[in-house]
Q: What sequence folds into this?
């Protein structure tokens, strides 16, 4: 009994031990599961921490890029994309600080490249952009730390000279800039000579506000262009009136053609050997209801700047050819017609077609038309107009030159010029002015040796006529024979010459 009891007790103990072992096994498994869960949780926590670190690093990088982007946007907002110079916005927002620190004296220079739009039309905008970059680099090298250079727009630059010791410093800087920009530049294997015009306003003499200084320097710059380009002009108060007049002319020009306010006058060209009128020059006149008779010296330049010269020039060509045809039908078949051509007209791709089409529609022979081309066209766009001029020459259309450009007579050896026209400025002081007389004799000699017809403009006195005859000048034009006349008056003048027995043939070039 005792043994049985002991066995039962031992069996119960074994069961409890087994139960404890099972419980321990379950606990162990649970513990292992918990450990695995903890390891998984740790791995997840570690992965999350790494992701958060990466996200933090990305956030820092994004902030850096954003800061750089803001700096770039700020730079782009205040700098020109092409030249990287400060732009107009920078000028208007920050120049006041420069003026305030200028020790009381500063100068604003408005620099404009002469005839830049013609270069763009001829060479293309890519070429023009490279020219602007070249000009900006030259300006930086010339001005140095004496001022700040802004690209104002297009071909315009503003230079703010600060802390001037003397107002004459601005003049000296302007002269250096004009000389520096005149130096030849090679772009795309093309050699180019450019010039610039500069207007200057002084601080505080001409204004304390930057916009006022810019406006007045701009006015002075236009005056420099009117003076012949390649010059600088310092603003003075009377220029305000000139600028206002120019703006008024430009406004009224737009309606002048529509209102039929233009008229052609004609001045005879007299052959000295024959003592007869053999040609006419067509001269444009404008009688404005608001302004009265406006000088061509005032409105032609404005018409060119506004490109109105293109339709206006076409009208002149058609009108002059129609009048010449009428004169031929009246028995004056010996007469030729000279028509002035603007540089902007000549650079149009269809210019030659316009000339030839006008001749055909009017019924004129090409040999009776002469195109008068200014020296500046040939100097500034020689390579690009020579082909057109040769084509016109081949059609027997005469071309004349050169005005006041004696220094550029070398171009005559390369271009199909058949007539050399000597400007009135060379005629005014002869024969009394020995220097002018010598210069004129040399021009006449060159024209003769190159077998050109030489015409002297602006002959007003008999002593001038006598001198020109002695020197062998071919033709003269001026008030000594006749001032420019309206079409009806010119017909009457020619009729008077006809009654005196004048007769000649229209000479083909």
A:
């Amino acid at each position: 009994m005792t043994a049985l009891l002991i066995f039962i007790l031992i069996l119960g103990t074994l069961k409890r031990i087994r139960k404890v072992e099972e419980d321990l096994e379950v606990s162990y498994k649970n513990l292992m599961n918990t450990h695995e869960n903890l390891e998984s949780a740790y791995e997840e926590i570690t992965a999350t921490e790494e992701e958060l670190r990466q996200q933090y690093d990305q956030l820092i990088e994004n902030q850096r890029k954003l800061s750089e982007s803001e700096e770039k946007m700020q730079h782009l907002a205040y700098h020109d994309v092409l030249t990287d110079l400060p732009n107009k916005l920078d000028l208007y927002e920050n120049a006041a600080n420069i003026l305030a620190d200028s020790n009381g004296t500063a100068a604003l220079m408005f620099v404009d490249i002469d005839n830049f739009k013609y270069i763009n039309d001829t060479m293309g905008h890519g070429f023009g952009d490279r020219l602007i970059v070249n000009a900006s680099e030259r300006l930086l090298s010339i001005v140095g730390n004496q001022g700040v250079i802004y690209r104002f727009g297009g071909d315009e630059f503003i230079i703010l000279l600060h802390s001037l010791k003397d107002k004459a410093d601005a003049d000296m800087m302007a002269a250096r800039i004009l000389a520096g920009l005149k130096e030849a530049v090679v772009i795309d294997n093309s050699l180019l000579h450019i010039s610039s015009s500069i207007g200057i306003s002084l601080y505080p003499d001409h204004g304390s506000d930057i916009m006022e200084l810019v406006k007045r320097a701009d006015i002075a710059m236009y005056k420099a262009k009117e003076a012949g380009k390649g010059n600088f002009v310092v603003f003075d108060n009377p220029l305000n009136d000139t600028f206002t007049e120019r703006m008024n002319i430009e406004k009224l020009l737009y309606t002048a053609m529509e209102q039929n306010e233009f008229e052609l006058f004609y001045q005879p060209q007299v052959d000295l050997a024959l003592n007869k009128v053999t040609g006419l020059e067509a001269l444009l006149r404008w009688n404005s209801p608001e302004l009265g008779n406006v000088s061509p010296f005032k409105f032609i330049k404005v018409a060119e700047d506004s490109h109105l010269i293109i339709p206006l020039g076409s009208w002149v060509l058609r009108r002059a050819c129609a009048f010449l045809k009428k004169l031929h039908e009246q028995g004056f078949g010996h007469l030729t017609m000279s028509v002035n051509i603007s540089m902007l007209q000549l650079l149009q791709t269809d210019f030659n077609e316009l000339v030839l089409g006008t001749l055909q529609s009017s019924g004129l022979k090409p040999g009776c038309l002469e195109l008068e081309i200014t020296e500046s066209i040939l100097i500034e766009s020689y390579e690009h107009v020579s082909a057109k001029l040769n084509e016109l020459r081949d059609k027997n259309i005469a071309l004349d030159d050169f005005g006041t450009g004696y220094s550029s007579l070398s171009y005559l050896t390369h271009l199909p010029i058949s007539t050399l026209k000597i400007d009135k400025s060379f005629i005014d002081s002869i024969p009394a002015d020995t220097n002018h007389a010598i210069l004129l004799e040399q021009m006449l000699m060159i024209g003769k040796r190159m077998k050109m017809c030489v015409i002297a403009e602006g002959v007003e006195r008999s002593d001038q006529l006598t001198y020109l005859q002695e020197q062998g000048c071919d033709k003269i034009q001026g008030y000594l024979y006749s001032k420019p006349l309206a079409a009806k008056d010119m017909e009457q003048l020619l009729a008077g010459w006809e009654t005196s027995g004048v007769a000649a043939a229209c000479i083909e070039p």
Q: What stands out?
A: The mean pLDDT is 83. Residues 455 and 476 are 5 Å apart (CA to CA). The two ends are 160 Å apart (CA to CA). The chain has 17 helices and 17 strands.
